[in-house]
């Protein structure tokens, strides 16, 4: 059985950092954003029945935070999908 290569040691000041020789993950972020967006929408829908309780306790901002998270998630999802398509075509993504 062959052992993996030893990690590279970098000494900076009085600290020593070990850097393993691994390939970076090819992650485009689409699935991560889909899960996050689903959680924000689920939280928003789950809080709607409690509007009265939230209003009585001055916590309606929870709903608006979920709505803002959903909106930002949609923007991020669009960005990551366009970037994924551009990378698959072999060209750099330009905003």
Walk me through this protein's architecture.
With 95 residues, the protein is mainly alpha-helical. The chain has a domain of 64 residues. The protein is 55% helix and 11% strand. It has 3 helices and 2 strands, in the order E-E-H-H-H. The chain has a two-stranded antiparallel ribbon. Strand 1 and strand 2 form a beta hairpin. The radius of gyration is 22 Å and the shape is elongated.
What is the secondary structure topology, with strand pairs?
Elements: E1 8-12, E2 15-19, H1 30-47, H2 51-56, H3 61-88
Antiparallel strand pairs: 1-2
Shape: elongated
Strand content: 5-15%
Query: How many whole angstroms does the radius of gyration measure?
Result: 22 Å
Find the count of extended strands (DSSP E, 2+ residues).
2
Average pLDDT taken over every residue = 89
| Biggest sheet architecture | 2 strands, antiparallel
Along the chain, the helix and strand elements come as: EEHHH
Biggest β-sheet: strands ordered side by side in the sheet: 1-2
Low-confidence stretches: none
In helices, the fraction of residues equals 40-55%
Please give the alpha-carbon distance between the first and last residues.
48 Å
**Class from secondary-structure proportions:** mainly alpha
Query: What's the tally of helices?
Result: 3
């Amino acid at each position: 059985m062959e052992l993996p290569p030893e990690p590279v040691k970098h000494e900076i000041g009085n600290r020593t950092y070990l850097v393993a020789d691994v390939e970076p993950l090819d992650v485009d972020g689409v699935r991560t954003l889909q899960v996050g967006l689903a959680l924000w929408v689920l939280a928003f829908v789950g809080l709607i029945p409690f509007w009265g309780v939230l209003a009585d306790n001055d916590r309606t901002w929870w709903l608006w935070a979920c709505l803002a998270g959903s909106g930002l998630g949609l923007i991020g999802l669009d960005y990551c999908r366009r970037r994924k398509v551009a990378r698959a075509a072999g060209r750099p993504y330009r905003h």
